[in-house]
UniProtKB/TrEMBL annotation:
InterPro entries: Enoyl-ACP_Rdtase_NADH (IPR014358), NAD(P)-bd_dom_sf (IPR036291), SDR_fam (IPR002347). Gene3D superfamilies: NAD(P)-binding Rossmann-like Domain. Belongs to the short-chain dehydrogenases/reductases (SDR) family. FabI subfamily. Pathway: Lipid metabolism. This is SDR family oxidoreductase. It holds the Pfam family adh_short_C2. It comes from the Bacteria. Keywords: Fatty acid biosynthesis, Fatty acid metabolism, Lipid biosynthesis, Lipid metabolism, Oxidoreductase.
Amino acid sequence: MITLSGRRYLVTGVLTSDSLAWHIARALQLADAQVLLTGYGRTRRITELAAAELPRPAEVLALDATRPDDFTALGASVADRWPALDGAVHAIAGAPADAIGGSFLTTAPDSAERALRTSALSLHALTTALAPLLERGADGGSVVGLDFDGTLAWPGYDWMGVAKAALESVCRYLALYLGPRHIRVNLVATGPVETVSGRGVATFGALDERWRGEAPLGWDSSTAAAEVVAGPVLFLLSPLARGITGEVIHADGGMRHTGMGLPAAPMGADRTTNVANRTADVGHPTADVAHPTTDVAHPTADVAHHTTDVAHPTADVAHPTTDVAHHTTDVAHPTADVAHPTTDVAHHTTDVAHPTADVAHPTTDVAHPTTDVAHHTTDVAHHTTDVAHPTADVLGRS
């Protein structure tokens, strides 16, 4: 349990008690920290109602992220109450209706700019306005922003996705320039969370369904705010993370590093051997074979029906013996002779000699025109499949 007794934090972005920021403020108070919130315009009254539901009612200061002068005024308001600030939470995001929902190609420039200003540039404005207070924190200051993976393109997220990519870059530059002042800046990227803003994304349901079905650790968007996201934010705000800055921590159930989601088979023997129409991982896979008969995939090929992973580029092929739904041969080392080929690969047993030699059986003579390798996008003799540094896509595997 992290204890933040006597420390002071500002939390932006609270609208209702469903807000991610509200759950972070609650976690801070439960860790014995003091908390201030921000709200804006007509919704400030709603924020005040949510603030009253915290373990200890919190004061709500004015902040409209679209008005630069509001950040300067916010810094002065915090300084009137506290001599120093230990951390701040940036939970500000927003975009006009024509900047999300599939309208990316026709979004008006003003709408795109507003999405960027509200969702990304506001991190810079908030952090620099609070910097004089943050550098007087007990262990320096920590700023944590909320993110949604900005390295990928998400249908319907559109200019908000562009803004998140910008947010991640702004985070890194703030970390660079404020590090000497002992101010850390990091982000926590989440999966889809059921909040007012989350449900405003037209494709939220599709994203949520994917996370629920594929996240290795599981995902429940209705409880993630309290059970998944608040903890990493609390850690980054605490002295325990004093050596971390410029980072994006992915609290997303493991989806960040999952190309296909969970296998269909349950955990156990079936999960590692029942791999029809899937890829059999062998050793340290570094490339994908295009087809189980003769084709060697190009390093940028789609692997929709590619079912054999090649392990290390400089070792030998040693006893391929796995019958994977009559399709998959596990290859241990791909550049020397096959010792005892015993695998029935879709009833096409192929003795492989050397990547630059002919296949022994005339029915699949790779070196000669009956199955010309040149027509399979891979010149075996010249090793156009770069196994040492693979770039093979794994999209389309189901």
